[in-house]
Amino acid sequence: MKCVFKFSCPITSTLDVIGDRWTLIILKQMLFENKQTFKDLKESTENIASNILTVRLNILVGNGLISKSKIKTNNKSVYYHLTESGLSITSVLVELGAWGQDNLSNYNQLMEKSTFKIKSSKKAYTKSLKNRYKAKIAKTEFVKT
């Protein structure tokens, strides 16, 4: 499902595609938590409703941020993975996480348990996330659906 854009502003257009909380959570889960299937995403701690997950996945596929495939060893499940366009959002997610660490940790005690910790520069952390994700995807034999 492609977005119908109503404005010429690149920020507004970007927010039309990735601006709601569930879309960013899906992208975060795929990149940071290696979630790949509908079931993986549905059973996450964020507890996204099935209908919302379906719509958001279709928007992400329709706008080229993720693609869906099957793998040779499991032809039943559909696997979602980030495209180059989707991976290019890594730095945005890292910036959001860093902002949250810097500005919300005093207000959200649960953040102490978070595994999101930038141990190096944001640029190096972003690069390592992308490389780790690409390496994992490269090891999987996908069959286009």
Count of helical stretches:
7
Order of helices and strands: HHHHEEHHHE
- Biggest β-sheet: strands ordered side by side in the sheet: 2-1-3
Counted beta strands: 3
First-last Cα distance: 16 Å
What percent strand? 5-15%
Attribute tags:
single chain; 145 residues; alpha+beta; Arc Repressor Mutant, subunit A; 3-stranded antiparallel β-sheet; 7 helices; 12% strand
Question: What does this protein structure show overall?
Answer:
The chain has 145 residues and is α+β, with helices and mostly antiparallel strands. It has a single domain (10-144), classed as Arc Repressor Mutant, subunit A (Orthogonal Bundle). It has seven helices and three strands; from the N terminus they run H-H-H-H-E-E-H-H-H-E. The longest helix is centred in the C-terminal third of the chain and has 17 residues, at 122-138. The chain is globular, with a radius of gyration of 16 Å.
In short:
By secondary structure, the protein is an alpha+beta fold.
Secondary-structure blueprint:
Layout: H1 10-18, H2 21-32, H3 38-42, H4 50-62, E1 66-71, E2 74-82, H5 84-87, H6 90-104, H7 122-138, E3 142-144
Antiparallel strand pairs: 1-2, 1-3
Helix pairs in contact: 6-7
